[in-house]
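Dear colleagues,

For the upcoming journal club I promised to circulate an example of a predicted protein-ligand complex. I picked one with zinc ion because it came up in last month's discussion. The inputs are reproduced below in full, followed by the predicted structure.
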Amino acid sequence: MDDLIKRAAQELAEAKHAAALTGAGISVESNIPPFRGKGGLWEKIDPMEYAHIDAFMRDPAKVWNVLIKGMKNIIAQAQPNDAHMGLARLEALGRLKTVITQNIDGLHQAAGSTDVIEFHGNFAWQRCMDCDARIETVKVDMSRVPPLCECGGIYRPECIFFGEIIPPQHLSRSQFVASQCDLMLVIGTSATVQPASYIPVISKESGARVIEINPERTPLTGSVSDYLIMGKAGEITRLIVEALERLL
Ligand SMILES: [Zn+2]
């Protein structure tokens, strides 16, 4: 593992346009449970009943009470971990341009990353469905559910529900970033869900190195990624950044 960490640091030192793709695995160490997979939120509640746009339109109070209130509490207490901090540090060092994330928790921005493409939007802000006024999720008054804007409209999160499309501008920009980068860090995601699954492939086909940091092998390993550094996102990212700082 030590050799791979040195190799990743060396390649980051030489890269001119590095980017990162992150998924739920990067936020697990910040105590944010994943949605999908074993132990995920969708094992506990049915996403079609609580996370589909039709369900929200039909009964916004129910979705606010079960899904949004719970997420609000989890995300309000979450802090960026060493992986988020490491990517922000790479940006500050001029070694990383853009983070593309499947997460909605806002932890990349909280860590200091300034160019974050959020495929699924974000949960840090709510938007009035009538007048588009925005309010920070932590400031939403939950004494009345669903919470209402001053205009009487219902607030909804800025992240997308099932049944809604990924904002086309996020999709096209992430594809552009993926095609232009010379190094792609894939952290905490097996990238099996579209459209994130295309991102490492686009980078690979455009000639970039693809470095994977995951706790176990994924469908990317050995096919799309040049190599896998197996372990926890926070620890591995911190070690890479430390090794890189010794090189600069
Ligand atoms: Zn409004």
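Two points we might discuss: The longest helix spans residues 60-77. Residues 128, 130-131, 133, 149, 151, 153 surround zinc ion (CB under 6 Å).

See you all on Thursday,
B. R.
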